[in-house]
Amino acid sequence: MDPIDIITTKRDGGELSPEQIDWIIGAYANGDDTTPRVADEQMAALAMAILWRGMTRAELSGWTAAMLRSGKRLDFTGLERPTVDKHSTGGVGDAITVALTPTVVACGAAVPQLSGRGLGHTGGTLDKLESVPGWRSDLSPTEMRRVLEDVGGVVCAPGPELAPADRRLYALRDATATVDSLPLIASSVMSKKLAEGTGALVLDVKVGSGAFMPDTGSARELAQTMVDLGADHGVPTRALLTAMDTPLGYRVGNALEVAEAVEVLAGGGPADMVELTVTLGREMLAAAGMDGPAARDPAAALADGSAMDTWRRMVRAQGGDPMAPLPEARETTRILVPESGELTRLDARAVGEAARRLGAGRSTKEDSVSPGAGITLHAKPGDDVRAGSPLATLHADDPARFGPASEALAGAYEVGGKRRTFPLVVGKLG
Ligand code: URA
């Protein structure tokens, strides 16, 4: 097979054959000096052609199955507890996994989670958790199983044997403006989630300016596509559509978000994060068949300290110190509110982009992230603000980053405009 023929077929609007899909994914993920190798630039060209041309249902199904087959599929059927996981399609300030996983584990389910890194303007769970001193994301499948058996929850990077096609393609898409493609997002999420061996899955599909799917129609289509792919592979999958017009919580950036999620685990934290943690937790327990009369409720696990105890055990099991101070950026500066009134808009995508420019995310796939960089918001839409009061504090190691970040935030907020309210949970499927 010739990669150039495959790229040309998609570029010109044709349908890829199952053989072409199997070949290109296999060669890209596993090619070496002795077997066919597909270069990054060829896969980037194909990803751009897919972004423009889309994929048929048959192509998407074959592409996802080929991504899954590029590595191993874990099997946790022997475990005592039912397994269930949740995956977010990516948002700003979305550290829900950090609070949710220990909460659901404290309610009796097991959560095996393969997570990703920051993508575009959105954060990634692995980057966030790596801000906890000592915490390791690179577990082998054997270590993953041991942590799951001992503690009940594990969050780690897909190792070389799990979803290798997604690992390479995810980083490539981030650096080539090919993230916002429905088939590429659906196959990326579902190949990882199917590989991790979860028994049931809840998807948090984000909608709004800070999401990869800005409108409800396309988010619903993405959600339905992923629910169907889960069913195709025997994993009961349901999805919530949740608002991402403004960041979740008040902090955006790796260590900043972990600190806020730990506040949720301590029984406090911002109302939107608590609501989403409890809502997704209930969905996960229901998906795992653990919603009977004797079931534990996520809100109770947050209130009675059992979710916090589980968090500490999970962190220790992966080499981290849950009591160690989280890293802080060396420099801060503040953005002030220009006029008094009600804050009516604070755009999630602009805040995510500003956080990326501060060092919380990457510009090239080789970049490392700065764990303490990011933004603390002092107001959210609906709050009354006074002229000259702080709207946001920017955190960075290098003050040269403040200018580009402030530029990203210019025009991202409005005082006294038309108030728009978005319910947190916009829809439900599956
Ligand atoms: N999350 C993923 O795992 N993959 C994507 O492509 C987007 C969000």
Automatic annotation (TrEMBL):
Gene3D superfamilies: Nucleoside phosphorylase/phosphoribosyltransferase catalytic domain (3.40.1030.10), Pyrimidine nucleoside phosphorylase-like, C-terminal domain (3.90.1170.30), Transferase, Pyrimidine Nucleoside Phosphorylase, Chain C (1.20.970.10)
Entry's Gene Ontology BP terms: pyrimidine nucleobase metabolic process; pyrimidine nucleoside metabolic process
PROSITE patterns: THYMID_PHOSPHORYLASE (PS00647)
GO cellular component: cytosol
Membrane-spanning ranges: none
Keyword line: Glycosyltransferase, Transferase
An example molecular function term from Gene Ontology annotations: thymidine phosphorylase activity
Residue span, Pyrimidine nucleoside phosphorylase C-terminal domain: 342-416
PANTHER family found in the cross-reference section: THYMIDINE PHOSPHORYLASE (PTHR10515:SF0)
Subunit and partners: Homodimer.
Similarity comment text for this entry: Belongs to the thymidine/pyrimidine-nucleoside phosphorylase family.
Protein name: Thymidine phosphorylase
